[in-house]
Amino acid sequence: MTDTVQAAAEVQVPIASRSERTRSFAVADFPQVTGREEEWRFTPTAQLSDLLDDAAGSARLSYTQDLPEGVTVETIDADTARGMGIMAPEDRPAAIAAARAPEVLHYAIAPGAELSEAVIVHADGTGTGAAHGHVLLTVGDNARATVVVEHEGAARYSELVSIVVGAGAQLTFVSLQLWEDGSAHLGQHDAIVGKDAQYTHIAISLGGDVVRLNSNVRYDGPGGDARLLGLYFADADQHLEHRTYVDHNTPQAVSDVMYKGALQGTDARSVWIGDVLIRPEAIGINTYELNRNLVLTEGARADSVPNLEIETGDIEGAGHASSTGRFDEEHLFYLMSRGIDEVEARRLVVRGFFNEVIQQIRVPEIESVLAERIEDELARSMM
User: Fold this and answer.
1) Distance in angstroms (rounded) separating the CA atoms of residues 126 and 327
2) Which pLDDT does position 4 carry in this prediction?
């Protein structure tokens, strides 16, 4: 795949430091979204008016799960959740979600728990009205767990997901967007990564008319390791937008961001914005972010904007890369020269392109679902 960087005129828009963004639980601290703001300029805000207005939703998601020993779930109020040190919302829909959610759904993994199987939570849309949710996941010190949230059905959903990873813990959190047509999903996923903890966030978006997810990380002590991975496949008239922000606010931390997407069909649109802030106190950190997009048909567009702010020179390393391109004809030629027909060769190229992300999930049930859904997408693109 040929590397192509977005034109400078396309991405060089004057903006303030990422650290200057408003963070607040008060909806009034965020003005109404017009679509002209830097953080909203790529988003089809006209399709999201019901999720951008500060009004109670008429729908709810239905949550089902089978929790193993060492994991509990309860409903708590907003004040209790804030007392656990969660980050405040950084945009209007997240603030609305926190304020309008009927309760906070709190999943807790006990300190020292080592879960041999993934915790799978099914979040099903039950209607077309606006729904607001706030989910809190706390992982005790030295615990080991994988948590998967599957979003399915029809919904217009705005959420705040707050994650607190204790010292020495290891958490993989997977968010699957498998919505039906007509759905919209706005989400802010915030993680606080404890001392010497390992955190992996995997966002996979395949369904829904509009999906916009912000995945953010801060550290609560040195030695934290954060990986943000993403996979998306946009069809005609579908808008899939992912934004990542790693706030390196402690010494000796590591972050690695990798998002991959494919697009097909007229007006298929993907957006990836990657922000990394390295504060003066973030001595000895190492960070890298990567976004790659594969355009399968005419009429599709991918916007990719990596941003890196460095406020100290005493670091191990920092970098980013972004590319958007079509099929690598050399790969196709190589496969076809060995007797593989063109349609199957193209499928193999796309499967290989996505495999680097899929193999990180390590949940067989989820990997099989993804393989099936990606095959369905590929079948449409090869018709």
Assistant:
1) 39
2) 37
